[in-house]
């Protein structure tokens, strides 16, 4: 158990403190998630362009995944790419006239790592580490078998989960507690788990859970949406903050409407009386 915990610490990104997703290998031999690296560069005033292996952003292929060049990530997917020698290069700061090298602050060794003029485009995706993370996840899932919560002893291993019921079931118990023709029959089965989280809204473009709200566009965005040039100068806040602000606004509006209800009803009665008097 101790060795597994030690291994898990080695598979955690130093920025987001979660297991690596699409890790990039830095020149200092440390690794960082692609989204995390993009956010760090944006915080330091650098624009970026997506490596070709990043799916869903319209880029070509690059590096060890198939060769080729990266492509810019325009705000409009149908926009033409800027010609060579024009526009924003990875590593050029906003407003810079000439390309400059990117200095990336490694969160693991606390050093500024030189990425050159290409920025993230010069880094390779650490496929070996990515496979290790995936195998570790599979090992954890296999070793921690989840049992049905409704079987009479001896319990059978759970094969389905239900987010609405917040429970895990074997096949027979799932059918028993979700009888045909009832509201529960509409519940969608999910993989069994011990911790049920409410089903989050997913970004239709990147298939990632939305975590922020863009006030400028008035839409929910995921982590990958945030690092695109579309939202470079937009006001973006966490979903919870946007929810609380909107809730307070609606609560005040509702309170005003309810407080004015008696006055409005009185005015309506007076108008109806005037209509009757006019008809007479």
From TrEMBL:
One of its GO terms (cellular component) is main axon. Its main location: cytoplasm. It holds the Pfam family zf-B_box. CDD domains: Bbox2_TRIM46_C-I. It comes from Prunella himalayana. Keywords: Coiled coil, Cytoplasm, Cytoskeleton, Metal-binding, Repeat, Zinc, Zinc-finger. It is found in: Cytoplasm, Cytoskeleton. Coiled coil: none annotated. One of its GO terms (biological process) is axonogenesis. Residues 198-239 form the B box-type domain. The keyword Repeat applies. GO terms for molecular function: zinc ion binding. The keyword Cytoplasm applies. InterPro entries: E3_ligase_FN3/SPRY, Znf-RING_euk, Znf_B-box, Znf_RING, Znf_RING/FYVE/PHD, Znf_RING_CS. This is TRI46 protein.
């Amino acid at each position: 158990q101790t060795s597994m915990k030690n291994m898990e610490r080695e598979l955690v990104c130093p920025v987001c403190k979660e297991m690596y997703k699409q890790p990039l290998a830095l020149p200092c031999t440390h690794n960082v998630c692609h989204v995390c690296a993009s956010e760090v560069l944006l915080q330091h005033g650098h624009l970026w362009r997506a490596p070709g292996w990043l799916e869903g952003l319209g880029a070509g292929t690059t590096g060890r995944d198939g060769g080729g060049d990266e492509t810019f990530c325009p705000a409009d997917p149908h926009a033409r790419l800027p010609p060579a020698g024009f526009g924003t290069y990875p590593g050029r700061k906003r407003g810079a006239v000439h390309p400059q090298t990117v200095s990336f602050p490694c969160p693991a060794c606390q050093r500024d790592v030189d990425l050159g003029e290409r920025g993230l485009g010069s880094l390779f995706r650490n496929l070996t580490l990515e496979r290790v993370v995936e195998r570790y996840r599979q090992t954890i899932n296999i070793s921690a078998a989840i049992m049905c919560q409704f079987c009479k002893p001896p319990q059978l291993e759970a094969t389905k989960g239900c987010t609405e019921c917040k429970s895990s079931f074997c096949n027979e118990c799932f059918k028993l507690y979700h009888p045909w023709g009832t509201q529960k029959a509409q519940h969608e089965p999910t993989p069994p788990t011990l911790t049920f989280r409410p089903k989050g809204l997913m970004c239709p473009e990147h298939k990632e859970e939305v975590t922020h709200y863009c006030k400028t566009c008035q839409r929910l965005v995921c982590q990958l949406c945030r690092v695109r040039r579309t939202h470079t100068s937009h006001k973006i806040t966490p979903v919870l903050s946007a929810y609380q602000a909107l809730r307070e606004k609606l609560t005040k509006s509702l309170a005003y409407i309810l407080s004015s209800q008696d006055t409005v009803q009185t005015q309506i009665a007076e108008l109806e009386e005037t209509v009757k008097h006019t008809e007479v």
